[in-house]
Specification:
Layout: H1 5-21, E1 29-37, E2 47-50, E3 53-56, E4 62-67, E5 72-79, E6 86-92, E7 95-98, E8 101-103, E9 113-114, E10 122-123, E11 130-134, H2 136-141, H3 147-151, E12 157-160, E13 163-166, E14 180-184, E15 187-188, E16 207-214, H4 218-221, E17 228-234, E18 242-252, E19 268-280, E20 283-295, E21 302-315, E22 320-336, E23 354-371, E24 377-391, E25 397-411, E26 416-431, E27 437-454, E28 457-471, E29 475-477, E30 483-485, E31 491-506, E32 511-522, H5 526-530, E33 533-535, E34 538-540, E35 549-563, E36 567-581, E37 584-588, E38 596-600, E39 604-618, E40 623-638, H6 643-648, E41 662-672, E42 675-684, H7 700-706, E43 711-722, E44 725-732, E45 751-761
Parallel strand pairs: 1-7, 1-8, 14-17
Antiparallel strand pairs: 1-4, 2-3, 2-5, 5-6, 9-10, 11-16, 12-13, 14-15, 16-17, 18-19, 18-45, 19-20, 20-21, 21-22, 22-23, 23-24, 24-25, 25-26, 26-27, 27-28, 28-31, 29-30, 31-32, 32-35, 33-34, 35-36, 36-39, 37-38, 39-40, 40-41, 41-42, 42-43, 43-44, 44-45
């Protein structure tokens, strides 16, 4: 039976009508009070749920929750980002009921509130999938200038040339679509044409936390989420105004091989950011500016850009709030695709591989939140995203993306949370990069998720119906003069449903067993279908016959919390299996000799195991430490290793390209009074296979033959706090190891970093 989008929406509408009409009216009760932290701090925007009814606190931490319930005993759930979720029984009588709540700060990740797994606040311990959380302290402590730098510390996550992959779910395809979806405050933030993340757009100076979901999430988030989610949650104004100024300097020292040093004046980076957050009555404001002047150790490789963000939220009533988040980024950069050689030219690009870019990117994200009289939440999120990349070598591209999502959410007194919504986006792309043609794309979807809790068992079920379409040229022309058709009258379209199911059972006081299975889906991007360019010396041609990827991820895991007087933390172990059908990768094209194109390479699978150990150890009030340890092993292979795949592989063995089988992460920090000390270690085993044609790049095969044991990097850091001023010193790549994440690019040598953070707090008037 063929499921259409209209049928799927009709089923959801009938389901909603039945459950909403089943509500019965009763006498009115009102619940009101104040929600504070354990230090008596006011919590603005804290949420309280009672039997399907919801309210949030105002600027004074006060909530007012009108209820349509009979008198009696009910369960209240109070949550706030960064604090432990509190569940407490309340006895309701007719009229006004006053209850105050106090939340403890979340001292362990088990207590951390997350939103990515179900689009609503939920304790990390109860989610049904593997999910990691990065806090702003770590982002600051390691002097993060781009978000992808700190993501390298997450177990199982690797960033190769700006492309994120989780547990080996992706390899490396220059500028092509991502299997990991980047979100900013739950809104997709990938470029419209290539599905590529722009990490420099993320305001690292204003991050509340980063949530990394591992595994297929297409049922809730759609195409591009088949390998996972990276969700950035931005910060917001607190009860007192705050200004934070940060500045940093990075100096690059000599490489371990003196012959590779081409510079006489030390390459450097300098960055400065200013962030201010304040409430003006019912208006919340968070604004930041950032400037980076980055002159890297790669010769003539630089990036100079400025970024401005402004986030506004206005509370019209206790139930209705509106807002808009904006981000503007403008800069100029130059980079190269690959080196001259592995000797004196290791940090110098081949002349034909250089590219210069002048870019302007901005987004405007209006949104609305409304709680109706029955406690249902209505949320409208939208985005306008404009990208103008003025590149040389006929690679310029412009795109504009329009995105809107309506979400309905209801919490029932039976501990059932219903989340459902509709999504529409469309984009227009014009680019020399795609043959000087104009393209449009559309995406429409309807989704439904049910989260139900029975005592110690949490069950999550999700379903999504999604349609995608790209309108391009009717005839595609190739460099050799041949032609091909592009879909039906230039339109390539497809629609399909995807589903997921997850379970989480509390075995003991702090032990949770989880299992999940979710389908993945990714529609090809405009870049993968129609790109026509030259990358260095390698022509890249279109492939209008490309088909979408499908697959699924299955996982079983256990999370065990440990807590005593001095130690709090958890151990997590997961076994996972990922399968992809019709996986898309860039390969040497069989159509034209010595060219690349995106192709469906058949079915693949990745089996693996991952373990992590995270904790805080407090010796005394003045001495405490934190650590994060993770190890991931993957076995990535083709289900049918054909002669064509073997011929395109540098190793000739059945292993997916650009993957590390073994991945180890370690980060630890200790605070002693006003001092802190930290160490970070990353180990990746040897990358066994790459595209065979890339061995034609000078010395790539020679470099790989010498570096067969993988690489281990060591970073050291220390800091000292002078009241509200913090001075940090970092020695990155302390052992000056020579390593590479992808062929033809040598990573940076040993470098020292100096960072100063100054924070100003202002007392509220009156």
């Amino acid at each position: 039976m063929k499921i259409t989008l209209r049928t799927f929406i009709l089923v959801i509408a009938l389901f909603l009508q039945n459950i909403i009409s089943a509500q019965t009216s009763s006498n009115k009760t009102i619940l009101t009070g104040k929600i504070t932290g354990s230090k008596k701090e006011t919590l603005i925007g804290a949420s309280i749920f009672v039997s399907g009814f919801t309210a949030v606190t105002d600027s004074n931490g006060v909530y007012v929750l009108p209820l349509n319930l009979k008198t009696g005993e009910y369960k209240s759930v109070v949550s706030y980002l960064g604090y432990t979720t509190l569940t407490q029984r309340v006895d309701l009588v007719l009229g006004e009921n006053k209850f105050d709540f106090m939340l403890e700060e979340a001292n362990t990740l088990l207590q951390t509130t997350t939103v990515t797994a179900g689009k609503y606040d939920k304790p990390l311990s109860e989610v049904t999938v593997s999910l990691e959380v990065l806090k702003p302290e770590l982002i600051e402590n390691v002097n993060t200038r781009k978000l992808d730098d700190v993501l390298q510390k997450v177990p199982g996550v690797n960033i190769i040339d700006g492309q994120a992959n989780i547990r080996g779910g992706s390899g490396w395809s220059y500028g092509a679509g991502s299997r990991v979806l980047l979100l900013v405050d739950d809104i997709p933030a990938l470029q419209a044409d290539a599905g590529f993340p722009s990490w420099k757009d993320i305001a690292v100076e204003n991050i509340e936390q980063v949530e990394v979901l591992k595994g297929a999430a297409s049922a809730l988030y759609g195409s591009s989420a088949m390998n996972g989610i990276i969700n950035v949650r931005t910060g917001f104004a607190k009860s007192e105004p705050e200004t934070k100024i940060s500045t940093s300097y990075v100096g690059y020292l000599s490489p371990s091989d003196p012959a590779k040093k081409w510079w006489s004046n030390m390459p450097y980076e300098s960055t400065t950011s200013i962030l201010h957050k304040q409430k003006f009555g019912s208006l919340d404001v968070a604004a930041s500016i950032y400037y980076g002047n980055q002159n890297y150790p790669w010769k003539d490789w630089y990036d100079k850009y400025g970024r401005f963000t402004l986030n506004l939220k206005y509370k019209i009533t206790e139930k209705l709030s509106i807002g808009v988040n904006t981000n503007y980024n403008q800069g100029t950069s130059q980079y190269y695709l690959y080196w001259q050689d592995m000797g004196a030219g290791a940090y110098i690009g081949t002349a034909s591989a250089y590219n210069k870019s002048d870019r302007t990117r901005y987004n405007i994200d209006p949104y609305l939140n409304y709680f109706d009289g029955d406690g249902n939440r209505h949320k409208i999120s939208s985005r306008f995203y404009s990208v103008d990349n003025a590149l040389g070598n006929s690679q310029a591209n412009k795109s504009q993306l329009y995105y809107v999502e309506y979400q309905f959410q209801r919490t029932f007194k039976t501990d059932l949370v219903l989340t459902t919504g509709l999504v529409h986006s469309n984009a227009g792309v014009s680019a020399a990069l795609y043959g000087d043609s104009t393209y449009t794309s559309q995406n429409n979807a309807a989704y439904l998720q049910l989260d139900k809790k029975w005592n110690k068992l949490n069950v999550s079920f999700g379903a999504r119906y999604e349609s995608n379409a790209v309108n391009g040229p009717v005839i595609v022309k190739y460099p050799d003069g041949s032609k091909d058709t592009s879909g039906t009258n230039g339109k390539i379209s497809e629609a399909r449903p995807v589903f997921r199911l997850g379970l989480n059972y509390q075995l003991g006081n702090s032990t949770y067993l989880r299992a999940s299975a979710g389908q993945g889906y990714r529609f090809p991007t405009i870049a993968e279908l129609y790109i026509s360019t030259v990358a260095g010396s390698f022509p890249v041609i279109p492939n209008p016959n490309l088909t979408s990827e499908t697959g699924y991820t299955a996982e079983i895991g256990v999370k065990h919390g440990i807590k005593n007087n001095n130690f709090q933390g958890f151990f997590d172990l997961a076994l996972f299996y990922q399968r992809y059908n019709n996986m898309m990768e860039f390969l040497a094209s069989p159509r034209i000799f010595a060219t690349f194109q995106s192709q469906n390479v058949g079915n693949t699978e990745i089996k693996g195991i991952e373990g992590s150990f995270t904790g805080d150890y407090k010796i005394s009030s003045d001495i405490k430490s934190q650590f994060l340890i993770g190890y991931t092993y993957i076995d990535p292979s083709y289900r049918d290793f054909t002669d064509v795949l073997k011929a395109n592989s540098s190793s000739g063995t059945n292993v997916l390209k650009y993957r590390f089988r073994h991945n180890f992460k370690f980060d630890a920090a200790a605070e002693i009074n006003k001092f802190s000390f930290g160490v970070g270690i990353i180990y990746n085993s040897n990358m066994e296979s790459i595209d065979k044609i890339l061995e034609f790049i000078p010395d790539v095969s020679k470099f790989r033959a010498v570096h067969t044991d993988g690489f281990l990097t060591l970073d050291l850091r220390t800091s000292y706090k002078f009241n509200l001023t913090k001075l940090s010193l970092i020695l990155a790549n302390a052992t000056n190891v020579e390593y590479s994440y992808r062929p033809g690019i040598l990573e940076v040598p040993r470098n020292f970093q100096i960072r100063i953070d100054q924070t100003f707090h202002y007392k509220k008037r009156g």
